[in-house]
Task: structure prediction
Amino acid sequence: MRRSWLRTKVNEGKTKMTNKVTEQAKRARSLVPVQREGETDACMVCGRTMRPAGVVRGEGRVCSPTCARQWAEGLK
Result:
C-alpha cells in the first residue's frame, strides 16, 4: 500500500466527518428555542424562574418533582 493513497483516504475521511459535524451543528442551532423578550416562565408552586419551553408556556409548569408532589397534594 502506498503512503500517498493512505494519506488521501485519511484526508477524505476527515473532511467527510468535518462536514457531518458542521451539518449537525447547524441543525442543533435551528432547534434551540428563541427567548421572547419580556416573557419568563415560573414554577407555579415555588415561583422559581425557569427556562422557556417551546411546547408549554405560562401557567401549569413546575420546576422539580418535589414541587409536582406539593401541587398534587394540594389537589386532594
Q: What stands out?
A: The chain has a mean pLDDT of 78. DSSP finds two helices and two strands in the chain. Strands lie at 41-42, 49-50. Residues 41 and 50 are 5 Å apart (CA to CA).
